[in-house]
What does this fold into?
Amino acid sequence: MNHVIAIDGSAPSLRALSALLKLTPSPQRGQIHLVNVQPALLPGRNCLSAEEIATMQQQDGEAELAEAVALLRQQGIAFSSHIVKGSPAEGIVACAQDTGANQIYMGTRGRGAAASLLLGSVATKVVSLSPVPVTLVR
It folds into this structure.
């Protein structure tokens, strides 16, 4: 089994990682792939060069992954991390496809159905785009 866990540095995303570790016994856990999606930024529009944007996205992604990385290292659990650029939902699903994941775990912000209808939701979009099961953790 391969698992993708969407990590944005928030408490719900860290709870999703904890849920995977609790729900999946170690021998059956397979590979763990942490994915962080950074927004796509265009050079010039933000007064930054392409290199500056790439550096900023890498640093921001590493910072958002830091707590999840520390948790897995502390427990001696092997993993890989991925920082991708673009739309969050598409980036998460693309990472799952690229890594051959069998499942996606992600946190939700708990906005509720009405807000989700009005604003859209990354979790809702991932569920609709994903060819593999998605576990949502609140």
User: Anything to note?
Assistant: The mean pLDDT is 89. The chain is about 50% helix and 20% strand. The radius of gyration is 15 Å.
